[in-house]
Write a structure and sequence with these properties.
The protein has 732 residues and is an alpha+beta fold. It has 13 helices and 37 strands. A hairpin with a 5-residue loop joins strand 6 and strand 7. Helix 6 crosses helix 7.
Length: 732
């Protein structure tokens, strides 16, 4: 991927015209400018042809591979989950195994051709074993409570698993509010808006609401398991190489209630024969100005009595979890004189090598890959040399030089690759997405620019594949959520958080800009720690747009902006401070910080907002008013689409629609039923994606789609009604 360095402009090249608009649903402004030019092969429908690998498991002999693939089934409004078995040889033909359909947590029993997996639905009813030779399946556990995770011992004989059951099966507040016959005493620290609108609302302290137990047993002897008494809620457990012990990461029972309680973990060790538990590294909460400290890890080094331990010092609510210190120590006792090494991580996975070094699947500068950690620092691992893009889901045989993994990029859909040994290049094993790869034709680059305060910011730029044409393009800026979420060099990495069809924008003649604003993880502690959450991040977005205008990439008369979650707070703030955008689309955001503060539970306000914004609403109301986009819409000139899930932030999005209509701007507000913060219904994903594509094509290019979508509930009449609304609003 190329890098384009963009210098800041002295001034904007052109300003958007003033719009005096009014109306109810609110629609477009400028007249139609004709159908978009350029590559139109990739459509919204192509997102639902993507087959995503969600798990990989390699047998200990590296002769068999099991992998899970998820793909949408629009006709049934569900996601299919299939499991395939394959060899690693060239021209291997992966085979779907019907007995494994829906199975997850795939794990080969060491030294065998038998595959263990959790079956019985998302809750995980139990562990089963599939014999690849006899093609038969048997039950491996007899727990009456759902099993949420398991691990097989290296000896191929023992199993450890964790069950979860509601400790207090009381009627949820949502139901009691609707069906109760009398007054209900509630706690403002734990009750918030989700208890009123979401039947699936998660309790404020989910670890306390669930009875979680750890069990140890023998494979093939269901019902003979023994419970392990751990003084807290287990979050991870891992077998030692000799199968005699388990390292355990857990949240101690005496950890105080807070919204970050589940992250304040400790590490201990269990003796498998006696089930006795011994704590090693114990978390400490913040007290008297001293920051809190917690520990995670427990990955064992091969053939050694050592484990990888990570220490987190809570200096910042969002930043600290991405900056652990690590060490490899004896699992018998921590010892004195521990030397800690610092690294940045984001959703990392760890594979200790045994010589004080560790292979780490990590994200660095918005690219996921494999890295080698040593006390001297981090370097890219040789396993992925020459591939580019992002690599993930690494699985290893007994030899760490033999690995399978998924590789993809912004221009290449995901496929499985294999590296057979040292000195061998990685080669592609599957062709799951060959059809999508032929249609996904666009150009993607990493760009850099100088932000308002002189900091060099970075982001992605996607442009249509039109040789010889370098702009200016209609531009849609996408402000990601998080805030720490890094928009990686992967194929449609944000689509399943909210289905903005960025690739389809580029296929229909528009450029797409994704700024890694400050607060984004994987770019260093300083970059992830803005002084003002409503300052530098917003300025990074604004300065990036200005730079693209100045360099002739973006057409200043055809600018759009979108964002979801945190991006639907920062994006609207940018919209109010740089009122040159012609169209916007925001989902699941916050229109007013005062309302947001009052609607959330008290724990979230104290642990999140008071820390993030420097003071409580009641002590510093002006701070919350300044960060409320709906109070600064007087100069906005865009047509605005707002979307939300009925089970999530629909109430908070109302303010956006109201203020947009108040100032006479084209406005549509769409609420999706039975939808939370991230929609998981394929039909709703497609509806939102098509609506967003239609919206920006209409407002930025004057283009109207004349043929209804190829499947689903859309009709010619509904499509005509959509454009009739928008055309009417354009004239007002």
């Amino acid at each position: 991927m190329n890098t384009l360095t963009v210098r800041p402009p002295n001034s904007l090249h052109g300003q958007a015209r003033h719009l005096a608009l009014g109306g109810l649903l609110l629609s477009a402004v400028w007249g139609a400018q004709g159908a978009p030019a350029g590559q139109e092969s990739f459509s919204v429908e192509d997102y639902f042809r993507i087959r995503r690998v969600t798990e990989l498991s390699l047998s200990s002999t590296a002769s068999r591979l099991a992998f899970a693939v998820e793909s949408p089934v629009l006709t049934e409004n569900r996601v299919d989950h299939a499991v395939y078995l394959s060899g690693l040889e060239r021209n291997a033909q992966p085979t779907a195994v019907p007995q494994l359909a829906g199975g997850h947590d795939l794990a080969w029993i060491p030294g065998s051709d038998r595959l263990a997996f959790i079956s019985g639905g998302p809750g995980g009813a139990g562990v089963s074993i599939y014999d690849a030779k006899t093609k038969t399946t048997e039950r491996a556990t007899a727990s009456s409570d759902p099993i949420i995770r398991f691990h097989l011992a290296p000896d191929g004989l023992h199993i450890a698993y964790e069950t979860a059951a509601r400790a207090n099966p009381a009627t949820p507040l949502y139901q009691r509010f609707r069906d109760g016959g009398g007054g209900i005493l509630v706690d403002s620290d734990t009750v918030g808006i989700h208890d009123f609108i979401n039947p699936n609302a998660v309790p404020a302290n989910p670890l306390r609401a669930v009875d979680r137990r750890l069990w140890i047993g023998l494979i093939g002897h269901p019902g003979a398991e023994q419970a392990v008494a751990v003084p807290g809620a287990v979050t991870e457990f891992l077998w030692s190489p000799d199968s005699t012990r388990l390292s355990v990461t857990y949240v101690a029972d005496d950890t105080p209630a807070s919204t970050v309680r589940s992250s304040r973990t400790s590490v201990g060790v269990v003796d498998a024969a006696s089930s006795r538990f011994r704590p090693l590294w114990q978390a400490q909460g913040p007290a008297g100005g001293r920051p809190g400290v917690w520990y995670a890890g427990g990955e064992w080094t091969p053939k050694e009595n050592q484990i990888l331990v990570r220490r987190f010092i809570q200096q910042d609510l969002w930043v600290s979890p991405e900056f652990p210190e690590w060490t490899v120590r004896s699992a018998s006792a921590p010892g004195d004189g521990v030397v800690w090494h610092s690294e940045e991580t984001y959703h990392a996975r760890y594979f200790p090598l045994g010589d004080g070094s560790v292979l780490v699947e990590n994200t660095v500068r918005a690219r996921s890959s494999l890295f080698l950690w040593t006390p001297q620092g981090s370097t890219p691992a040789k396993v992925v040399a020459g591939l580019g893009g992002s690599s993930s889901l690494f699985a290893f045989g007994a030899d760490p030089e033999c690995a399978v993994f998924v590789n993809e990029s912004m221009t290449r859909p995901p496929e499985i690759f294999v590296r057979w040994g040292a000195g061998q290049p990685a080669r592609q094993l599957t062709h799951l997405n060959a059809g999508v790869a032929r249609t996904a034709v666009l150009q993607a680059s990493e760009i850099n620019w100088t932000s308002t305060d002189g900091t060099v910011a970075t982001g992605w730029l996607m442009v249509p594949n039109q040789p010889g044409h370098h702009g200016p393009w209609p531009l849609v800026t996408m402000v990601h959520g998080g805030p720490q979420f890094p928009f990686t060099d992967a194929f449609a990495p944000y689509f399943y958080y909210w289905p903005f069809p960025l690739d389809a924008y580029a296929a229909h003649g528009m450029a797409v800009f994704v700024p890694h604003y400050r607060g984004t993880a994987s770019f260093g502690r300083k970059y992830q720690s803005p002084i003002d959450d409503g300052g530098e991040p917003v300025e990074d977005v604004i300065s990036g747009v200005k730079n693209l205008i100045a360099t002739g990439v973006a057409d200043p008369q055809r600018l759009g902006i979108s964002g979801q979650s945190r991006g639907a707070l920062l994006g609207p703030l940018a919209l109010t401070r740089l009122p040159i955008f012609k169209a916007s689309s925001f989902a699941e955001g916050t229109s007013n910080q005062v309302v947001n503060y009052e609607l959330l539970d008290g724990l979230s306000d104290r642990d999140v907002h008071d820390v993030e914004d420097g003071a409580s609403l009641y002590a510093s109301p002006q701070r919350y008013l300044d960060l409320s986009p709906d109070l600064h819409f007087d100069h906005v000139r865009s047509a605005n689409l707002f979307e939300a899930g009925a089970w999530s932030q629909a109430v908070e999005m109302l303010g956006f629609a109201k203020v947009s209509r108040h100032f006479g701007l084209p406005t549509e507000l769409v609420i999706y039923p039975r939808t939370a913060h991230n929609p998981n219904s394929p039909l709703i994903q497609r509806e939102s994606a098509q609506r967003n594509l239609d919206w920006f094509l209409f407002w930025l290019q004057g283009y109207e789609r004349t043929v209804p979508a190829s499947a689903g509930g859309e009709t010619s009449a509904s499509l005509a009604a959509q454009y009739a609304r928008w055309r009417a609003l354009r004239q007002e």
